[in-house]
Task: inverse folding
């Protein structure tokens, strides 16, 4: 059997109440997309998807302040950069 894709899970705390739960898809040992569910105290408030070509999809439900949106977006970008940047050996 040949495994062609792997789905990894992870999470990042944005603030005391906000977090992003990630699903990272790898195909043939290459990360192809990062999808995140944005949560406030365990309740879904948005999604974020980042792709290796730079495409970003960011959606937030009503109720997040501009400061919270900026914080979530910046956190997701920083996390995606770490995921997509090749690690030096």
Result:
């Amino acid at each position: 059997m040949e495994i062609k894709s792997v789905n990894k899970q992870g999470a990042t705390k944005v603030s005391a109440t906000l977090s992003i739960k990630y699903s990272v898809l790898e195909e043939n040992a290459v990360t192809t997309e990062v999808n995140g569910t944005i949560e406030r105290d365990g309740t879904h408030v948005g999604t974020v998807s980042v792709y290796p070509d730079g495409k970003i999809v960011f959606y937030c439900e009503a109720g997040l302040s501009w400061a919270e949106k900026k914080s979530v977006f910046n956190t997701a970008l920083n996390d995606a950069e770490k995921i997509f940047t090749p690690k030096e050996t």
